[in-house]
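Recall that a protein's primary structure is simply its ordered list of amino acids. Everything else, from secondary elements to tertiary packing, is in principle encoded there. The following example makes that idea concrete.
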Amino acid sequence: MPRWAKGLLVAMLCGPAGWAAGAWATQFAPRSVDERVALADAVVEVTVQAATAAWVDGRVVTFVSADVHRWFKGPGGDEVLVGVPGGVVGDLGQRVYGAPGLEVGARYVLLLGPGLGPDGARGLVMLEEGVFGAAPGGSDEPVRFDSFGERAP
């Protein structure tokens, strides 16, 4: 068999499997706001007060503490602790694509899961898809984040 034919055979046998695995790993089904709210255990309007990163089970998690202005869904309380994957501890940082960088002093509406993390921390429903901007009086505009978790225009 000619050398080019062997290469073609290998590409035909191995290529599609590699392409399919890569495509499968990056696909997700977009959900509407109503579907995301239904998935959430809590929906709150908050102002971020502080953010501190720490190691949790071999991963960096940024714990964001926020004052609650309003509970739209879920239990009440004046404060909430949110665990966002990624962050910087010492000289080492971990970035998780899709995880938002919540800014201290900013106001958001957050879709949160149950408080099962350390100190009752809650996760965001669908990471950046569970964060909306909140202007005084409320807003239903989603906050956009780039692939690095930074707020996008």
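The CA atoms of residues 83 and 117 lie 7 Å apart. The chain has two helices and seven strands.
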